[in-house]
Amino acid sequence: MELCFLRATAVIDVDKMKIAAEIVTVVFDVDYDLITEPFGDYSPNVVLERVGELRSRHLDDQDKPKIFVLFDENAVESHGAIILGRAIAQSRVAVVRWWTEPERTAATCLHELGHVFGLTNRHCDRDECLMYPHARDRQIQGKTGRELYCEECWRTITNDTIYESLHNASQERRSKVTRGLNRVRAAVTTVSERVRRPKPLFPNGVVHTPRTFPDINQYQDEHSFLYAVLKFYGLGKDSEETGQ
Ligand SMILES: [Zn+2]
Ligand SMILES: [Zn+2]
């Protein structure tokens, strides 16, 4: 399971999008991908159609279940957040009203993902909880899930199978990067082995954040630079096989 953030149009600033995505994923302790290619304008009436299109563009080719969060500056607002209904929650897609303040967008996003993670069509009557139906200005950054949701909602979210699957996949991805590095280190010291260039993990237009491409001037020698590049690419399968 992966979590992808998209933007409806290029009006939405990519850097701000990253900040919002970062705030949200820190709360849930999960990884994310950012798709910067604008998704396009749409009317809320045809959103289901567009979701189908989205799936065929980004889902089918990778054979991996994904959760999509589409930031849209024109999204229709209702109760301060966006209600998208059951069909969207079941498709693991949320459309989130984009605000120029990333923290405000993140709050809306955390609310909508609550609907994707087990709280389908459910709100909370505790006004200190993010699942309260009316948005209020609140500080999100630096707070944990336990502080932002009430105990009951947070328990529902963290016990939800979609959430668990996303959380586990993120943990697995992080541990793979560490294990893979050791394997490549061994491969590079064997002179007879040829180090193949890893394939980028993500297709064009998909940026895996928040890492930046390593700067060669920051490394003492080309081997440490190479490790950094391999790490940047998330260690594709090819590079892991060089030890064999
Ligand atoms: Zn809601
Ligand atoms: Zn609650």
What is the gist of this entry?
This protein is an alpha/beta fold and 244 residues long.
From the N-terminal CA to the C-terminal CA, the straight-line distance is 29 Å
Amount of helix: 40-55%
Instruction: Specify the biggest β-sheet.
Output: 5 strands, mixed
The H-level CATH homologous superfamily of the largest domain, spelled out, is Collagenase (Catalytic Domain)
Structural class: alpha/beta
Low-confidence stretches: 81-87, 183-202, 236-244
CATH class of the largest domain, please? Answer: Alpha Beta
What is the correct CATH architecture of the largest domain? 3-Layer(aba) Sandwich
- Across the major sheet, the strand order is 4-3-1-2-5
> What's the total number of strands?
5
Q: Could you give the order of the helices and strands?
A: EHEHEHEHHHHEHH
CATH topology value of the largest domain: Collagenase (Catalytic Domain)
Q: Give the overall form.
A: globular
